[in-house]
Design a protein that fits this description.
By secondary structure, the protein is α/β, with parallel strands linked by helices. The protein contains 18 helices and 38 strands. The C terminus is likely disordered. It folds into four domains: about 210 residues, 3-Layer(bba) Sandwich (FAD/NAD(P)-binding domain), CATH 3.50.50; about 180 residues, FAD/NAD(P)-binding domain (3-Layer(bba) Sandwich); about 100 residues, Beta Barrel (Elongation Factor Tu (Ef-tu), domain 3), CATH 2.40.30; about 60 residues, Arc Repressor Mutant, subunit A. Helix 5 runs parallel beside helix 6. Strands 1, 2, 3, 4, 5, 6 and 7 form a seven-stranded mixed beta sheet that branches. Strands 9, 10, 11, 12, 13, 14 and 25 form a seven-stranded mixed beta sheet that branches.
């Protein structure tokens, strides 16, 4: 089998994984992988996207959530069915696709059972992302012990996937620091704190009526943990949408895309289309370009992207077309996605015939919003436990808000334990509300006059919580309201006072500051532009198109110099010379060529009855809609008849989509009986709950 290497060998931010190369087989063909990486990463690195076929309709299956919560990526590893996204590859492993229902494994011989261990703790924190880590540290400062449980090998949650600098407050939530570095900083702090016990690779499975939490520790040993107080910090899961072809391999959520890209350092695609213009989609598109992936375009159903404008500006300046008031109609391909069709939406919210655009792609990134993972919180409340909830599990916001939310909720947990703290809760709440505030209205870019000397130009034009520029300027010339960091920054100096150090240019999280310098070139001033791309790419370009803030080409210019600013890593300053008339308008450099697409494609009905709504059980929109029209109002009835929601993801993907169908059919919420959540967060081998341990011989067989 010919190999197609999709590994990222050079990246402007990330360092090589540094794992040992091993060999394994796929369908009997020898391939290479990296020891210990997920099987899914090893397969994708070898350009294998189809991991098997569904037993119901033989539809191709591939990576979908990359989070172990569904079974789309199931494969056979040495004869045992496993989830490719969480099961590590090992030297000599035999990996095969799952086609149809997997058979039962052979008998295990002698069984060894032990009693289920139990543990009591003052505070149990479920989730090792920004809010969970922050809460654990704040509790430790108060002298309160906690057990922090996370299902990943590395703490940090989604921070470990974020290569960009964060917004927010420099003094309180690491603003101006990259997400990967924030994750490392928080993890180191937690590891050094004796009052915090950490269980990594451990999943909280269920909350029980006796107020104990079932936890699968290290993915092999079952524990019952009884906390005095419980803090849920599980984050959020991605929403999905229905459209013809929505289950083709190569179509995945933004989280799965970033997991392959920034954690596993494997390219999920060579050319990708993005659906959704919130921060998640905009950021993922930027990450794709950093890794050398072409972004064919982005479609957003709303008239404006809902994410931070600076995130969108970065994309359009690089050459990514953004189609607002557009939706995806369909995706199609033989075994994996090959093309995607979008169309404009009319005032009635329906696609407008004649506006179709077809893009040839091998990846589609779905970023249509997030929903809190709050099942364990709701169950704990039902059973009368002392429980709090923090971060995205409570309310979807940015990671900076999640960090501060964890700090605030730690004090509320302390109160539940009967401890009085002298913290100003009102002030903490006020700061949190600022950090999680929605972006303000986009303002026209302010005109800046520079005719001599040197001075920064601010291209930030939307109120968002962000203040790093204030701390970057050694002269203190940047001004933002101290009591509300959402205000747009103002430069209080002039072209004779600025020293041209470029720290503001290199350190702005939104890359929304340039610098115009007349000192050596009065006839053709130099403009300094911050770029987070590979230096070799910039050097190879030589001459580039410089753009305004909206991505419109102003002129072509020769790159005069490429350098870095001390202590501001992984950001290059590119200097170009332009005419004085456009110097202050220059905001970025176009990297991608103009993207091509076909027009006049066939329009697809968005309510196509054959569209899959339940991925796990391959249930269609038509099947669910027919039941609703026949009088079904109970989720459990629908589940019994169609098996929608009975699959490995436990309805996490299809539940909200089925609710949308009810709304489309005009059924009020009051008439709908919601589904009963399955008791386990994810499926687990039954022997685990009985304390089953493999005997020594079997352990040896599994390791060989």
């Amino acid at each position: 089998m010919p190999q197609h290497d999709r590994r990222i060998h050079s990246h402007p931010i990330l360092s090589p994984a540094g794992r040992k190369q091993i060999t394994f087989t796929w369908q009997g063909n020898k391939l290479t992988g990296l020891d210990g990486e997920p099987i899914s990463a090893a397969l994708y690195a070898n350009n294998i996207k189809v991991f098997g076929h569904h037993v119901k309709d033989h539809a191709p299956q591939g990576l979908f959530c990359a989070n172990g919560q569904c079974s789309q990526c199931m494969v056979f590893a040495d004869g045992k069915p496993v989830k490719a996204c969480i099961h590590p590859i090992r030297q000599g492993m035999r990996v095969d696709p799952v086609d149809g229902l997997p058979g039962l494994p052979p008998g295990t011989g002698t069984l060894d059972f032990t009693s289920i261990p139990e543990k009591q703790v003052p505070v149990l924190i479920i989730g090792g992302g920004p809010s969970g880590l922050s809460a654990a540290m704040e509790l430790a400062k108060l002298g309160i012990k906690s057990l922090l449980v996370d299902d990943k090998s590395a703490l940090g949650g989604k921070l470990v996937l974020q290569t960009h600098r964060f917004f927010g407050s420099k003094q309180t939530v690491y603003a101006g620091t990259r997400g990967i570095d924030i994750a490392e900083n928080l993890s180191i702090q937690v590891s050094k704190e004796p009052l915090i016990e950490v269980w990594s690779n451990s999943t909280a499975l269920a909350v029980f009526s006796d107020k104990k939490i079932g936890i699968l520790k290290d993915e092999k040993e079952y524990y019952l943990v009884e906390p005095e107080c419980l803090l849920i910090a599980c984050g959020a899961r991605e929403k999905f949408i229905t459209f013809p072809g929505n289950t083709l391999p190569g179509i995945m959520g933004a989280g799965a895309f970033q997991t392959l890209l920034n954690r596993d350092q494997v390219k999920p695609a060579t050319r990708v289309f993005i659906v959704g213009g919130g921060n998640v989609g905009l950021i993922a598109g930027y990450h794709a370009i950093q890794a050398g992936i072409e972004v064919a375009g982005l479609a957003e159903a709303l008239p404006e992207c809902s994410g931070y404008r600076v995130h969108m500006d970065k994309l359009v300046r690089l050459g990514v077309p953004v189609f607002t008031s557009h939706t995806i109609l369909s995706a199609y391909g033989k075994d994996s996605v090959e093309k995607v069709v979008i169309a404009a939406l009319g005032s009635d919210g329906k696609p407008v015939s004649g506006t179709e655009k077809t893009f040839s792609v091998d990846g589609v990134l779905i970023a249509v919003g997030l929903e809190p993972i709050d099942e364990l919180f709701l169950k704990a409340k039902e059973y009368g436990m002392k429980v709090e909830i923090a971060g995205d599990a409570e309310e979807i916001a940015e990671a900076s808000a999640a960090i501060y939310s964890g700090k605030l909720k730690a004090h509320e947990v302390a109160a539940l334990l009967g401890m009085h703290t002298d913290v100003n809760q009102e002030e903490l709440t006020r700061t949190l509300n600022i950090l999680k505030a929605k972006p303000g209205i986009v303002q026209p870019e302010a005109a800046t006059e520079i005719h001599n000397g040197v001075m920064p130009v601010i291209h930030c034009r939307q109120e968002i919580p962000c203040d790093p520029c204030v701390h970057l300027c050694p002269k203190g010339f940047f001004y933002i309201e101290k009591d509300d960091i959402r205000t747009i920054p103002v430069y209080k100096g002039d072209s004779h006072l600025c020293i041209g150090c470029e720290r503001c240019v290199a350190g702005c999280p939104g890359l929304a500051i340039t610098m115009v310098d007349y000192r050596k070139h009065p006839e053709k001033p130099r403009v300094s532009i911050a770029v987070e791309l590979e230096r070799t790419l910039l050097e190879k370009a030589g001459t580039v198109n410089v753009t305004d803030i909206d991505g419109n080409t102003l002129t072509s210019a020769v790159i005069q110099e490429i350098h870095q600013v001390a202590r501001l890593d992984h950001t290059f300053i590119v200097e170009v010379e332009v005419d004085p008339e456009i110097a202050t308008k220059v905001a970025g450099i176009q990297i991608q060529a103009e993207q091509d697409f076909e027009t006049g494609a066939e329009i697809f009905d968005l309510s196509n009855e054959d569209t899959i709504i339940c991925r796990c059980e391959r249930v269609t929109v038509g099947e669910i809609r027919a039941l609703i029209r026949s009088g079904a109002r109970d989720f459990n009835e629908i589940k019994t008849i169609t098996r929608a929601g009975a699959g490995s993801c436990g309805g996490k993907t299809c539940r909200s989509l089925i609710l949308r169908l009810f709304r489309e059919e005009g059924i009020p919420q009051s008439e709908i009986s919601l589904t009963v959540h399955r008791p386990l967060f994810k499926e687990v081998e039954l022997g685990v709950f009985a304390g089953l341990h493999l005997n020594a011989a079997e352990q040896k067989d599994n390791h060989d």
